[in-house]
User: Fold these one by one.
Assistant:
Number 1:
Amino acid sequence: MQDLLQKIEHFKSEISAFSTTDEKQLETYRIKWLGTKGLVKEIMGEMKNVPVEQKREAGQVLNEFKQFAETKYNEMREAMGATDGAAASDTDLTLPGDDMPLGSRHPISLMRNKIISIFQRLGFAVAEGPEIEDDWHNFTALNMPEHHPARDMQDTFYVEAGKNSAVDWLLRTHTSNTQVHEMQRSKPPIRVICPGRVYRNETISARSHCFFHQVEGLYIDENVSFADLKQTLYFFVKEMYGKDVKVRFRPSYFPFTEPSAEMDVSCFICGGEGCNICKKTGWVEILGCGMVHPNVLQNCGIDPNKYTGFAFGMGVERPAMLKYGINDIRLFSENDVRFLKQFTSAT
Ligand code: DAH
């Protein structure tokens, strides 16, 4: 023990006498005293030779010595201008940390997910179809043969195909193409909800865009009736807009449904009193729907004498604009983070 104390005294005076402003010498100091094979480690190892009754005292002395050697090292390092690490006294550890940037969901995704989740609760499965589509799936199968005037309801972007291509390729004008794929792919009962992006050759303005989003619904089974369609949509509206919202159906025309209807809800901005959003009518149109036309079932390999079904299609942008008070559809696709980070939930 006495030896040990002497040795430490000796080391201490050596350390006290040492001083440097040279990086290399400082490193030599570190290796000599504090390195894994350094003298501090070595002398610590002598603990095992100390008699039991003196271990406590020896431990204290050794620890003190270790700190002494470390403090000296840190002082020299600091004096040389090193600011990193624990030795840097100008690091204010009480400052708040940097924020981790956290993304947020796109308002269109929020609205689409909300629509989907309502139908999922009724047992609808999610199906997706291609955005680049052939003419048959987008039009012909849906009871719009070539030269049918209804094709003009949707200005189409055609995709340039190779010279030998037997079919016309286009960007789908609606999600109804997914109905066709689903009917071809599986047998009734079919109950799917098909979200997706669609394209139309329209001038871009605050109110319309050349691409937007739709959610399509399709239910095919034996004995499906218009009453089932209405009940399904009533449920949707109550979940989406609240139980006080009124619903009305207006007769309409779509080539792929017969009969066809458009569905309005009482304006959820003014409560039906009449405002700018509902153009003073008190009603807002939200979707098109109808009973699947027998020709469509036939085209897709489903026996129209055995099965019936309903379908509906709605846009996603407009409900999102109404919900969040967005007055320019272009904001959805400009990817301005200041716009996007405002949305957290569609509920
Ligand atoms: N495809 C129609 C459109 O884009 C929307 C639509 C209407 C879809 C009636 C349907 C439907 O499935 O039954 O305007």
Number 2:
Amino acid sequence: MKLTGVEVREIRLPLVSPFRTSFSTQTARTALVLRAVGPDVEGWGECVAMADPRYSSEYVAGCGDVLRRFLVPALAGRDRLDAVAVAPALAPFRGHRMAKAALEMAVLDAELRTRGVSFARELGAVHDRVPCGVSVGIMDSVPELLDAVAGYLDAGYLRIKLKIEPGWDVEPVRAVRERFGDALLLQVDANAAYTLADARHLARLDPFQLLLIEQPLDEEDILGHAALARTVSTPVCLDESITSARAAAAAITLGACTIVNVKPGRVGGYLEARRIHDVCAAHGVPVWCGGMLETGLGRAANVALAALPGFTLPGDTSASDRYYRTDLTEPFVLADGHLPVPTGPGLGVTPLPDALDEVTVRTEWIPL
Ligand code: NPQ
Ligand code: MG
């Protein structure tokens, strides 16, 4: 496959309601959409970085800069480019995994469309639909939270994840457990808001039979997570800390987690995400697919990934209308708590031209 350049668009999609986490409150999703262009092919990528470096060190403008200056130019001067060659070509540039992931995704989509193969088939999916959970933001009051959770359960979501932070943890968890019962699949995500000094406090979540506690401590605090995992009975799951298959292997071996949240953007792409799946499977560690408020593009690829055999827990692969009134693509609609795995070539979905133009803030062409 030959490519002539990459179009990078910054988009701004309003959220249906504000999404509050321990690190920020978002009312709109700013993101980059990439279009890898060749003489007779195009492929779509999505960069999951946020506008501000609050979830991780990456941010939208920084991703645009590193793509323009270093990453796209590193793919120049080849008559043939395959997706497997992208990560090695970008490896001389340190970090910037979200920017790299977006570029690899666009090239992979272009390649798979050329070959007539879906993301699901290429990655090794074994299911034609995936069970879905939903991530529920921090609210101003417990009654508001209970209403929100009730709405998501009515919509069919099979698992609830509560965002937590100091001051919003034991009480909301207790309230949701009491209202919706012991059978509800329930987990929490702290986005690194605690320290190991909070271990006794976090142990107060133990009675509520949570599936897991996600990223309670700092991204770099692997040994802290290992110590916490020895103190609390809730299984510890890592998100931000898992930046590669190698990091996953180390965290598992050190006892820092017994479950892993896989986010392709965080780890440099779908091919590395599959390697994390494989490493975790080899260790008997369950994985699930996280979410970064993706548009239909990233959502399509995430649903394909979540259909691999080791993804044994419901993911944050929510329907389009969890976040957006109008998605960039045909919307993903929950059916019986599941989303269908796309079957068409590549992502199996394409942005609707008018919907994309509507939300595009700026467009840049980076020649190859
Ligand atoms: C997580 N996602 O698992 C993330 C964090 C997150 C679904 O909980 C804008 C863009 C807002 C990306 C808020 C979920 C975001 C974002 C939260 C990612 O930790
Ligand atoms: Mg998380």
